[in-house]
C-alpha cells in the first residue's frame, strides 16, 4: 500500500519534471539572443505624439487612454501590460500599431510619427524618459518593454 502511494508520487514528480523540462526549452533558446536595452523615449517625442493622439486616436482610445467613445481598447492597465510589456521586444507593440492604426488608414504615418505615438503611450504607462525611442523595427527588436 505504502509502496503504491510512493510510486504514484514518484510518477507524478517525474511527469511534472518532464513538463517543466519541455516548457523551459523554448525560453532557453530565446534567451540565446536576449534583447538588452530597456525601453525609453524623449520628451520631444511625447509632445508630438500627444498632438497626433489628440487628433486621431482620442475618439477611440480616450483622453486618459482608458478607452473612448468609439470602441478602442484601453492603452494602459493590466490587459494591455500583459500583451506588450515585460520581456517582450518593443517591436511587438510598434509593429501592431503601425500596421493596424488608425483603423481607417493603417500605416498612414511616418515611422517617426508612430514612434512619437508610442512614446506618448509609454509615458502614460509609467515608463521613464531617456534616449529617444527608435522608429526602426530592427532596432526595436533589441529593446525590451521593461521599466
Ligand atoms: C476607429 C477607432 C480607432 C481609432 C481612431 C484608433 N484606434 Fe487603436 N484600436 C482600435 C481597436 C478597435 C483596437 C483593437 C484592435 C485589435 O485588437 O485587433 C485598437 C488597438 C490599438 C492598439 C493595441 C491595443 C491592444 O490592446 O492590443 C494600439 C497600441 C492602438 N490601437 C493605438 C492607436 C493609436 C496610436 C491611434 C491613433 C493613431 C489609434 N489607435 C486610433 C480602435 C481605434
Strand content: under 5%
Bound molecules: heme C
CATH superfamily: Cytochrome c-like domain
Structural class: mainly alpha
Q: What number of domains?
A: 1
CATH class: Mainly Alpha
Number of helices: 7
In the CATH hierarchy, the third-tier topology is known as Cytochrome Bc1 Complex, Chain D, domain 2
Sheet of most strands: 2 strands, parallel
Task: State Rg.
Answer: 21 Å
Question: What does the oligomeric state look like here?
Answer: single chain
- DSSP, total strands: 2
Order of helices and strands: HEHHHHHHE
> Uncertain runs with pLDDT below 50, 5 residues or more?
11-25
Keywords: Heme, Iron, Metal-binding, Signal
Pfam family, one: Cytochrome_CBB3
GO molecular function, one term: heme binding
Domain Cytochrome c: 44-125
Short account of what is shown:
The chain is mainly alpha-helical and 147 residues long. 56% of the residues lie in helices and 3% in strands.
Task: List strands and helices in order, with pairings.
Layout lengths: L1 H29 L6 E2 L4 H14 L1 H4 L16 H7 L6 H10 L10 H14 L12 H4 L2 E2 L3
Parallel strand pairs: 1-2
Helix pairs in contact: 2-6, 5-6
Heme C binds next to α3, α4 and α5.
Amino acid at each position: 500500500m505504502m509502496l503504491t502511494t510512493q510510486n504514484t508520487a514518484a510518477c507524478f514528480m517525474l511527469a511534472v519534471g518532464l513538463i517543466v523540462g519541455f516548457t523551459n526549452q523554448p525560453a532557453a533558446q530565446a534567451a540565446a539572443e536576449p534583447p538588452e536595452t530597456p525601453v525609453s523615449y524623449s520628451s520631444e517625442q511625447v509632445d508630438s505624439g500627444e498632438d497626433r493622439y489628440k487628433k486621431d486616436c482620442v475618439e477611440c482610445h480616450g483622453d486618459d487612454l482608458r478607452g473612448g467613445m468609439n470602441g478602442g481598447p484601453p492603452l494602459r492597465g493590466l490587459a494591455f501590460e500583459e500583451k506588450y510589456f515585460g520581456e517582450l521586444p518593443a517591436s511587438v507593440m510598434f509593429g501592431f500599431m503601425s500596421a493596424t492604426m488608425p483603423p481607417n488608414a493603417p500605416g498612414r504615418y511616418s515611422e517617426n510619427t508612430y514612434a512619437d505615438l508610442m512614446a506618448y503611450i509609454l509615458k502614460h504607462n509609467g515608463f521613464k524618459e531617456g534616449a529617444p525611442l527608435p522608429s526602426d523595427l530592427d532596432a526595436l527588436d533589441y529593446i525590451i518593454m521593461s521599466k
